[in-house]
Amino acid sequence: MNLSNDNHLSCQLTLQFSNTGETLKDYFEKMTGKRISLVVTDNSSSLLSIRSKTDAVSVRMHWMFLNAENEVIREIIDFIKTRKGRTPLIRKFINDNQVCLKKGEQKVRQARIFMQGRFHNLKEIFDGLNNEYFEGTIIASVSWGKAKTRRIVWKRTLGSYCRQTNAIRINPILDIKNVPQYFIRYVVHHEMLHSIIKEEKKTGRRLVHSPEFRMRERLFKDYAKAVSWEKKWI
What we know:
The structure is a single chain. The chain is α/β, with parallel strands linked by helices and 234 residues long. The chain is built from 8 helices and 9 strands. The radius of gyration is 19 Å and the shape is elongated.
């Protein structure tokens, strides 16, 4: 299996799911029962390559896959195990993540200055949160993501943080009059926490939202109100 960038395949990250090469390698070996040689690259022409060798399976992947959702990771595992079958989730993930590719560097810079929405200004929100909760120490960029379609699944794409580009992106579907600013502040605050709190590994399992993360998330003054609003409307 070798997915290239011949068709200008792309990348938008979903923050909650952040792996390391080591944790992915361990997980691949556990789920496939095979010895895995995993190399994480910045190669924008060959994004995902899976090849069988004499005593192992060689996997080379672009670092964007460190942020892939569980469904995408499971599809990679299924392909390693069976060496056949369609891979629609992998291809969709790549198509949604162009910003991670070298050829997309200009788009990354453009995205970083897209902070003023129609109803909400992310720079003002980010700066206010940075001063109030982080003593001004967060240096990540923040921007609205690119609106692609009205058929966006809200809950899975509210916000994301890419550690490699140190960029926070917020789903533009939230930039409407009926979404209260305290909820957008809650989403941005959540992603800012991801920028400074790394996942933990406990008994072989990833803790994307560690006890420290959950504790600090609850320090957000409108936490209960935001969670209540999300359950009611999203």
